[in-house]
UniProtKB/TrEMBL annotation:
InterPro entries: NA-bd_OB-fold, Rfa2. The keyword Ligase does not apply. This is Replication factor A protein 3. The keyword Nucleus applies. One of its GO terms (molecular function) is DNA binding. It comes from Hydnomerulius pinastri MD-312. GO terms for biological process: DNA recombination; DNA repair; DNA replication. It comes from the Eukaryota.
Length: 92
């Protein structure tokens, strides 16, 4: 079962997980070829994307393999953005 583990990390913890699959909740700063994201601890992380991959949303959780202390190879992205409707908010 351990082959399916993917711990959540921030930028400071990436160096401890080189070569492993992790989850990185983050804010997308820039997407051009690859992506630059800001982790919850304020650190910036490079995300390697292929031409067919994209990050959908401003806030995402990236699942990927840690390539170096500040770079992740993208495998999957989950949007963490939500609308007021999704939150059940209403204008009264």
């Amino acid at each position: 079962m351990s082959e399916f583990q993917s711990p959540r990390v921030n930028a400071a913890r990436l160096p401890s997980f080189v070569g492993r699959t992790v989850r990185l909740p983050c804010k997308v700063i820039n997407v051009k070829g690859g992506a630059l994201v800001e982790a919850c601890d304020g650190g910036q992380v490079e995300v390697r994307l292929t031409d067919s991959q994209e990050l959908a949303g401003t806030y995402v959780e990236i699942i990927g393999q840690v390539v170096s202390e500040s770079c992740i190879k993208f495998m999957l992205g989950l949007s963490l953005d939500c609308s007021d409707k999704e939150l059940g908010r209403r204008d009264y």
